[in-house]
Amino acid sequence: MTIERVRLAEIVHQAPIPILVLRGAALLVERANDLFQSLAAGAAAEGQPLDEALASVPEVARGVREALDKDAAWTSSPTAVAKGAGCSGRCVFIARPLHEAGLAAGVVVYVSDFEDAR
To answer: Residue 19 pLDDT more than 80?
Structure first.
């Protein structure tokens, strides 16, 4: 693993919010921190496809795919999730495309507690 990838892994792991990093056109899980794993009930394992990782919130999976397809940011409406992992039960999912050589090549998903955002 390159130094940059090690640093990225550490940043994601230590982030105080749930984060999911997906790569490629298939949107496979590259990395998910423990907070995101708690929200996804452990479904966001490395190499897992998007639809399986976000099976509990299919509307979010659709939005993440839209972010990649349109190469544009996408933000969910407040979405019901299991309480815990830094979320009161209603969270906002924010998907941002990641780029390689100027082209959308993945998506990062941040999760914000809707109650904290108000």
So the answer is: yes
The domain limits of the chain are: 21-117
Summarize pLDDT for 56-79 with one digit per residue, the tens. 889 999 999 999 999 999 999 998
Distance of CA 14 to the CA centre of its chain: 15
pLDDT in tens, 52-61: 999 988 999 9
**Contact (CB, 8 A) for 86 and 100:** no
What backbone phi and psi angles, to 5 degrees, belong to 15? -60, 145
For CA atoms 39, 34, 109, 101, the dihedral sign is negative
Beta pairing, strands 79-80 & 103-113:
unpaired
Query: Beta strand pairing status for 74-75 and 103-113?
Result: unpaired
Classify domain 21-117 by CATH number.
Answer: 3.30.450.20
Closest CA to 18 of 107, 88, 115, 93: 93
C-beta atoms surrounding 21 within 10 Å:
21
Beta bridge partners of 20: 32, 109
